[in-house]
Each structure stands twice: as structure tokens, then as C-alpha cells.
Model the fold of this input.
Amino acid sequence: MIQLKRIYDAPKKSDGYRVLVDRLWPRGISKEKAKVDIWLKDIAPSNELRKWFNHDPLKWAEFQKRYKKEIQTNKEIVAQLKDVLSKNKTVTLLFSASDTEHNNAVALAKMVESEAFA
Done:
């Protein structure tokens, strides 16, 4: 099971394995307080794509397409995430964006749940 959660929300046992999927470490939170099991910064969108998107809902559909294309070219990080998913019953993808509907964790979860990640 994949869950999504802002890294600023308190960790819970129900989060299972906590995976930070942002390229940059979130501001204002210590690594100790974040309780991250693994930081997969290379699964995050490139700096260029992240800056282009800028959490603009009008760019959401195009962002998802471009992000999917980037992910598909990085077989090593995809394999790493697949390994995490196969070894853990519950995986929570952590993100720092304040927009909980239009961010890379949401797009990544959609990819994982679709055949695009197979």
C-alpha cells in the first residue's frame, strides 16, 4: 500500500516505511524529526522540471508527462523504489510541497499504481 504525506506532518507507526521523494531536503525540519527511512532524491523531478512546474496546477498534466519520461530513463532509481515497495507492506511517500494535489509524490504514486512503473 502506498500512502502520501507531507513531511511536516507528525510521523505515525501507520506510515510504515517512510520515503522522502523530494530532490531538496525540506526547510525547517531536522533529519531526526523527519523520521525518514530512505531519501530517494534522484527519483524526484530534475531541477529544470521542478522549476518549470513551480506547482502550477495549469501545468499539472504536462508535468506528469515530463516527469514520467524522466523516471523511465532512470532504471536504477526505479529498481530501488521497486525494491522498497516489495519489501514493505506500507510505504509512505513524503513530500514538502504545500499543494497536496499537485506535487511529484502524487505523480509518482500514480505512476507506481499504473503499468508505467511495471
